Structures are given as structure tokens and as C-alpha cells.
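Title: Comparing notes on inverse folding

I've been comparing how different people in this forum approach sequence design from structure. To keep things fair, I'm posting one structure and asking everyone to reply with a full sequence. Here's the target:
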């Protein structure tokens, strides 16, 4: 196990950056969920609501709507706040998650926003391709409800404070 300067291992699977929780302390983090399935939207909303973080969750149902939201965040940040994190479904009609990820990471206005893929795909080729396109994480939805809730909590524990500090 490699230890990075300024970090500590809080548990066997969770890396906590020293001081980040102190800086976070209740700051709002804006999260954009790009998910077309209403059941998965509900599951993710519930998982995020059960964390201790102050989250402003924006939900869109397509990759195209996600890109539109991001572009509007440049001109109307009050109604379309820049997300500190994107939770992205991979398999959607139209452009789909891969198209969204490719466009976001190619745009200098948005390439620094972490995108965590949350998908039912367990294909290694999808995992590899998403990481090659600079996804910040790849989470499979096909875990049990309780396992998925734990995974969402781990995402929240790492990404929400980091995103809040970087975007405030």
C-alpha cells in the first residue's frame, strides 16, 4: 500500500485527505445525476439523502440534457450551478454516457469536473474505456440495495468534501 503525503488511511478501503473534512464543514456540493431510469434515480437519490452531506442534487434524464445543464452553468450559475461531481449512467438512449463523458473531458470548461460512472454494465471493455476517457470512478449498480447504499456513502465521503472545497 502506497501512502501519499498529506493523507492517512482511515480504513482498509477509504482514503481520507487530512483537513478536507474541516474545510468542508457544511458547504454545499452540487451534484449532477445523468440517469434515464426513474427507479435508479430514486435509488441514487435515496442513497445520497442518507449521507451526512449538504447536497444540491440536479437530475437530468439524458446525456444531451446533461451537456445542456453544464453549458447553462456557464451563463446562469444561479439556476444551473456548476456541479462538483457528475454521477453518470452509461447505457442511455441517444448520445449515451460514453458520448457525454468524451465531450465533458474534451471541454476545457468542464474537464476538471469528476465524473463517476454508475452503471449496470460489468463489461471490462466498458470499465477500461471509461477510465481511458478519464472517468473518476466506475460503480456497478448490480449490487444489492444495501451494498449499493454503502458504495454511494463511500462516494459521498470521498467526493463530496473534495468537490465542495474545490468549487467554493
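Reply #1:
Here's my take.
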Amino acid at each position: 500500500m502506497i501512502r501519499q503525503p498529506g493523507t492517512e488511511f482511515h480504513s482498509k478501503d477509504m482514503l481520507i485527505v487530512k483537513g478536507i473534512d474541516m474545510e468542508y464543514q457544511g458547504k454545499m456540493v452540487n451534484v449532477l445525476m445523468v440517469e434515464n431510469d426513474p427507479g435508479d434515480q430514486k435509488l441514487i437519490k435515496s442513497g445520497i439523502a442518507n449521507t451526512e452531506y449538504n447536497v444540491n442534487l440536479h437530475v437530468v434524464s439524458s446525456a444531451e440534457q446533461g451537456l445542456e445543464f453544464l453549458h447553462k452553468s456557464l451563463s446562469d450559475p444561479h439556476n444551473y450551478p456548476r456541479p462538483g461531481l457528475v454521477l453518470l449512467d452509461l447505457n442511455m438512449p441517444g448520445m449515451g454516457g460514453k458520448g457525454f463523458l468524451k465531450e465533458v473531458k474534451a471541454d476545457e470548461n468542464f474537464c476538471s469536473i469528476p465524473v463517476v460512472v454508475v452503471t449496470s454494465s460489468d463489461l471490462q471493455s466498458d470499465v477500461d474505456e471509461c477510465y481511458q476517457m478519464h472517468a473518476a470512478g466506475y460503480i456497478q449498480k448490480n449490487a444489492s440495495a444495501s451494498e449499493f447504499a454503502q458504495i454511494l456513502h463511500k462516494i459521498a465521503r470521498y467526493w463530496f468534501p473534495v468537490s465542495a472545497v474545490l468549487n467554493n
